[in-house]
Structures are given as C-alpha cells and as structure tokens.
Automatic annotation (TrEMBL):
PANTHER family: HCA OPERON TRANSCRIPTIONAL ACTIVATOR HCAR (PTHR30346:SF0), TRANSCRIPTIONAL DUAL REGULATOR HCAR-RELATED (PTHR30346)
Name of protein: LysR family transcriptional regulator
Family: Belongs to the LysR transcriptional regulatory family.
A Pfam family assignment: HTH_1
Keyword terms: DNA-binding, Transcription, Transcription regulation
Superkingdom of origin organism: Bacteria
InterPro entries (UniProt xref): LysR_HTH_N, LysR_subst-bd, WH-like_DNA-bd_sf, WH_DNA-bd_sf
Organism: Streptomyces johnsoniae
Location of the HTH lysR-type domain: 4-61
Keyword Chloroplast: no
Length: 297
C-alpha cells in the first residue's frame, strides 16, 4: 500500500465502470490525460497492466478484473469507516448525504423534517449537484441519495419515490417577447434557441431537459450548453437563449428581475425522483425514502 493514492484507486474504479477514458474523466471532473496518468501510476506501483487499451476499446486485463473484485468492497468499507468516524466525532447516529438539483422544494423540505424527527441522532448534509452530472456523484459514492429530474435509465441507480409532477416552465429574458405572456405552447419553442445541458449528462436525459424537436416535429434551435442551473439562468438573463425548468425551480427564482418564467403547455410534466446507488443503500437512505413516500400521502 505504500505510496498508493486514493485518487489512483478512484480513477481505476470509475474507468472500470465506464471503460472509456473520456467519460471517466467527466465523472471525475479531470481531463482524459489525467485519468491515464493516474492509471499509469497505479499500474507502476502494482507492477503489471490493469487495463487493455486499443484504438477501438478499453477493457480490463485478467489481473484488472481480479483487482476490481477485491478493491470494490474494500473501497466501500473504507468510505463507510470514514463516514462512521465523522458521525462518531459529531456524536451523531450517522450522516446522510443528499444531493439535489436546483432547489429544495416543499416536498423535499417536508421529508427532511419528518426524517429528522424520526432519526434525531443523525445528521443531513445537503449538496447541490451539477445539472450536467445528475448521477455521477452517486456512482462515485460521494452521496448516499439524490433528488434528480427524471428520467432515470442507469442500470446501477435505483429509482425510489417520484414526486413534484408539475407542468414545465420556460425561463426567458425579461426583455424577451414571451416575458409578458401568460403561457406559451410547446410548438413555440421552435422560434428561439433552447439552452441545453452539457455533454457529461446521459444523452437520453439531456434530450428530455432540452428537446431538439417539438411534439409536432418542428426543429428547436440549440442554444448554449451549460453545466449548472446558475450558468443557464445567467445566459437566459443575457438573452442567449431560453431554458426549460421544473415548476418548483422556477418558483424559487421568481424574484429575479432579469428573468421571466412562463408556463409551457403541450409538454410532458416534469418529475423529480429520489435515487440511490444499487450497491450502496445505508439504512438512513431507506429511512429517508420512507419519509419522502409518507410526505406524499
């Protein structure tokens, strides 16, 4: 173990999942060359190749497969030990790390209150996650659970309670012709560039948040792609494009004078869901999922 860095192990674990250096870099928020550097360093310490690289594919060597099988549970146990030590240092019964996109709406706030009433020895850490990476923090086990915009099609992500089903809202500049409207139709999205989500989010998820076609088949011109909600709202205020938002996020930012929020008719409602990793379900996640479900009753 002498000299091995946690970052090297994390790079190997993510690369073993993605089998693609570019996607692994996106998940780790580093460059593709940095992933290669970390892997080479780890292989040098071990003394053998863990990954096979060709011009067409990336795969694990037999040693890499064996190392992955032994490393994954050990890494999970190490993370749990750190979390337990943090909880003990705080004198609590555990730490629940919850990610969210955009804002904490009334449903989530109510569930947090109910959870804390039931699990008084626990601590909740709320972390805003990038719009461009809805599932990465869970897959890297940086979080225990997250509230994300649907859909969810990741095989390693479990979808729990679904809530906040509401009509979508279009954010536009206060100077935009739509700003004074009571509503716009989905077909009118074709008249102005629509701000999208950066490429590190899954393609199917990005298409739902920023469709390229209206329900009637008209092309929607693509606007800039962003990583965060704040980037999108700043570009909207600068009249660089329009942006689709869920209703709760629009309501939270309704006080911004530079942006107007207009309901959209003719699009499927947006929905939020509580999700967690299939291989990492601490008891506090189950307790919180129950609180969310009961809050919806």
């Amino acid at each position: 173990m002498s000299g091995i860095e946690i970052r090297e192990l994390e790079a190997f674990l993510v690369l073993a999942r993605e089998l693609h250096f570019g996607r692994a870099g996106e998940r780790l928020y580093v460059s593709q060359s940095r992933v290669s550097q970390l892997l080479r360093s780890l292989e040098s310490r071990i003394g053998a190749s863990l990954v096979e690289r060709t011009s067409r594919r990336v795969g694990l060597t037999p040693l890499g497969e064996r190392f992955l099988a032994e490393l994954r549970p050990a890494y999970d146990a190490l993370r749990d030990s750190v979390d337990n030590a943090r909880a003990a240092a705080r004198g609590t019964g555990g730490v629940l790390r919850i990610g969210f996109q955009g804002t904490v709406d009334d449903y989530l706030a109510g569930a947090l209150t109910l959870f804390q009433e039931r699990c008084q020895g626990s601590t909740i850490e709320l972390v805003e996650i990038p719009l461009s990476d809805p599932f990465g923090p869970l897959q890297r086990q940086e979080l225990d659970a997250a509230v994300v915009l649907l859909p969810v099609e990741e095989e390693d992500i479990v979808l729990g309670p679904v809530f906040s089903r509401q009509p979508q809202t279009l954010a536009v500049s206060a100077r935009h012709p739509f700003a004074a409207r009571e509503s716009v139709t989905a077909e009118e999205l074709a008249e102005w560039p629509l701000i999208g989500v950066n490429g590190s989010a899954p393609a199917y998820w990005r298409r739902v948040q920023a469709p390229s076609r209206t329900p009637g088949g008209r092309r929607v011109p693509p606007g800039p792609a962003v990583n965060t909600l704040q980037e999108g709202l700043s570009l909207t205020a600068a009249d660089r494009g329009t942006m689709l938002l869920c209703r709760s996020t629009a309501d939270y930012h309704a006080g911004r004078r530079s942006v107007a929020f207009v309901p959209v008719t003719g699009l499927p409602d947006s929905e939020l869901g509580l999700v967690w990793h299939r291989d990492h379900t601490p008891p506090l996640v189950t307790a919180f999922a129950s609180a969310v479900s009961e809050t919806l009753l």
